[in-house]
Every structure is written in structure tokens, then in C-alpha cells.
């Protein structure tokens, strides 16, 4: 049967006729022959989001000392900025999944990309130290929802294909390598201020990706049922996934410290 083993229920309440005959044809048709509503979910924009995140993080890793000097308060001030950024990101990310549930990943990704683009572009021209401090805090915090929504979409598409899902996540590393190389080249050729060009370039790419996402339907792209935090914990416990959640938290703890 077209539904994968269970025959479609024959409509009742009417005498056999052309409509029922068409239903019989539908029952016997292969699944590929049955039209589906809407376009097929697109995974490439999700890959693009992971690459974009990597570009920004890679460029940040190389330009970090120059941002530190621009702030002018030493590593302690930069540490305070990053602490505030990670704390704010934790709060925002907690709502990122909810945003994907309420709006669908397509709209949520578009909004997240545009917000991040605005912050990154503003940060590229923000004066030091106050404006730049605020920009650093907001940059990583606004990047978090892009990551959350991308993870929701990628998992929705590839949860039963862990190898492919891992390769999609690995595109982040490729983006980070490219971002680090480009930022290093800019710093070498143009000087200490050129990290701002990297931020501006990432902002432009984020806007371009948002335009692409706006025209596509991502996996889990439509609004779904909201799952509260307590319900999410219950599901993790029932699926014996709490140790994995703890491992993620510890990884974030180490990464944040670094």
C-alpha cells in the first residue's frame, strides 16, 4: 500500500463511483507517484548556517588579541565581555528552540540571521571601548540562535542518518578554518584594524543567507507543538539522554573557559 503497509481506509457513506475508483488507484500507486504538498525541505541553507558560524568563530579566534587591544582594558575586560556574552547567549538559546517551535525553522532562521547580521555589522564600526564592549557581548549572544535553529533543522532532517548529520556539523570546522585564514591574511596585509572587515563580511554573508532561507522551506520549517522545559527534561530522562545533555553542558563549560 502507498502508506507503507497499511491500506488506506476506503471512504464510507457513498456508493462506488468514479471517486472511489480513483481512491483504489491511489491505494495501488507507489509512494513516489503520490503528490505531496509543498516544496521538499532544503538542507543546503542549514549547511550554510553552520559554515557561517564557523567563519565568524574562526575569524574571532585569530583577531582576538587585536580586539583585546582595541578594548584597552587588558584580558580581564575582554573576559568580562565574553562572560556576559555567554551568559546572555544561554538565556537567548533557551528561547531559540521555542522560537523554532512557534515559527518553524525557516522563519526562525531568517530572523536569527538578520539579527546577527545587524549586530555584526554594527560591531564592525563600533567605537572602542564602550561600543566595542557591547558589540562583543551581543555578537556571540546573537549567534547562538542561529546555531540552535540550524541544529533543530539538521536533526529533523538527518536524525536517522548519524553519519550524514555528523558531516553536516563538520562544515562548521571547515568554515572556521576559512575564517581564520581570511582574518589572518587581512591582519597581515592591512593591519590590526582589519578584523572589522571580517565582521562586516560575515554580516553581508548572513544577510545573503537570510534571503536564501526566506525563499526555502527548511526541515521542520513549519510551526509545531511547543515542548516546555520540564517536558523536555522528562523526554530526555525517558530516552536515557540526560547523560548526553550533561556532557554538552560540561563541554560548554570547558569551551567557555577557553
Q: Helix count, per DSSP?
A: 9
Quickly give the structural class. Answer: mainly alpha
Rg, alpha carbons:
23 Å
How much strand content do the residues show? under 5%
Could you name the ranges where pLDDT drops below 50 across 5 or more consecutive residues?
A: 1-36
Mean pLDDT: 83
Record field, number of beta strands? 0
Q: Which shape, going by the Cα principal axes?
A: globular
Helix content: over 70%
Report the order of strands and helices: HHHHHHHHH
The biggest beta sheet reads: none
Distance between the termini: 55 Å
Structural features:
single chain, disordered N terminus, 258 residues
Break the fold down into its secondary structure elements and pairings.
Blueprint: H1 18-28, H2 44-71, H3 74-103, H4 105-125, H5 130-158, H6 162-190, H7 195-214, H8 229-238, H9 242-257
